[in-house]
Amino acid sequence: MMKALVKEAPEAGFTLLAKPIPQLPVDGVRIRVLATSICGTDLHIYNWDAWAASKVTTPLTVGHEFCGEVIEVGEKVTRFEAGDYVAAESHIFCDQCRPCRAGQRHICENEKIIGVQRDGAFAEQIVMPERCIWRTPADLPPEIATLQEPLGNSVHATLAGEVSRRHVMVTGCGPTGLFAVAIAKTCGAASVMAVDVQQYRLNLATELGADQVLNPLECDVVAEIQTATEGRGADVVLEMSGNEKAIEDGLRCLSRGGDFRFFGVPSDRISIDVARDIIFKGARVQGILGRKVWDTWHDTARLLEAGLDLTPIVTHRFPMDDFEIAFDLIQRGECGKVILYPAGIPD
Q1: What is the largest CA-CA distance in the chain?
Q2: Average pLDDT along the chain
Q3: Domains along the chain with CATH numbers
């Protein structure tokens, strides 16, 4: 048996349970989970909002961001062995559908996301297909190694178009937004303007290099962005919150011919002024899902090798048993990235 964090029923909350250790298929890799990190998707599932109800079937072991040590491999596995230090692509792609064959594995027609559509990583062990495993440098600490998957989301969103010498607006300073701030600065943005309603997270954005931080509860974000860009607006808007007001403000701040990239997941349908904010601006709008496999992973590795510093974003660490404390912090927005350790916090 192993310890796992489970969504038992279609209602708010998780339960810590003892579950059978998963079986190992011939193409599978059994991994002892060293560290996991909590994502906004996990919060959707924890709260059991409309999005979660449409995607998740209970009972389910949750969690999809992790790193760990290989402890066993299936008989057809050739690239990994016991003792390897790894992370994983959380979108289980089929490698057979048209998008997969066209190099678009991140939008696989048959994908199953761990912790959403199949058992995930908030557990002492997880079994993953060999094709989804990413070898990790031995000198990368587990609290950073577990961030490779969510960092890849922000790398994908930020580098989906040009950011160098452009005014970049980031709406939502949760971890993916904070990652985006750091990436945009590293990649030479002319300025980075970060928006959030939590002062704690705006302070983190400043620490990561944001040139301007704005709280929509305290100022007119649209007016401030217009002033900061001499009436031009933001060339690139990275929408990382899923909040309807943030989306509306971001679209209104977008420059003519600008790039708007959706990553945050709204909890329900939203209303936007398509004519005013998209059509008549000639805007380019893109939805961002996950990471390009394996292109974004390589980009992410190069950014880490080049010195991208994520340590300010990791603000809290807990043994997995204290998950309720961790989720309460996230609900209140009084944290950056929160790390859970299934076997307890290492010395």
Answers
A1: 62
A2: 96
A3: 2-147+313-341 (3.90.180.10), 153-287 (3.40.50.720)
Dump pLDDT digits (tens) for 153-178.
999 999 999 999 999 999 999 999 99
* CA-CA-CA-CA torsion sign (324, 326, 328, 331): negative
pLDDT in tens, 290-310: 899 999 999 999 999 999 999
pTM above 0.70, yes or no: yes
Model confidence pLDDT, tens digit, residues 104-125: 999 999 999 999 999 999 999 9
CA distance 34 to 237: 35
Active-site position among 36, 41, 158, 171? 41
Strand residues in the chain grouped as ranges (E):
2-7, 15-19, 28-37, 60-61, 65-73, 85-88, 91-92, 112-113, 125-129, 133-135, 167-171, 191-195, 212-214, 234-239, 254-262, 284-287, 314-319, 337-341
DSSP state of 321: G
* pLDDT band at 32; cut points 50, 70, 90: very high
- pLDDT at res. 305: 93
Closest CA to 342 of 20, 37, 25, 70: 37
The answer to whether 44 is a known catalytic residue is: yes
- For residue 313, the SS3 value is coil
Examine residue 59 and say whether the peptide bond preceding it is cis (omega within 30 degrees of 0): yes
Cα 282 off chain centre by: 28
3-state secondary structure of 195: strand
Query: How far apart, in whole angstroms, are the C-alpha atoms of residue 45 and residue 56?
Result: 8
Is the predicted pLDDT of residue 99 greater than 90, yes or no? yes
**316 catalytically annotated:** no
Return d(Cα 230, Cα 282) in angstroms, integer.
Answer: 20
Q: How many residues does this entry show for the chain?
A: 347
Distance CA 176, CA 149 (A): 11
pLDDT, tens digit (0-9, with 9 covering 90-100), for 53-77: 999 999 999 999 999 999 999 999 9
Determine which helix (DSSP H) or strand (DSSP E) holds 22, and give its type and residue range.
Answer: none
From 36, 44, 64, 296, the catalytic residue? 44
* Helix, coil or strand: residue 142: helix
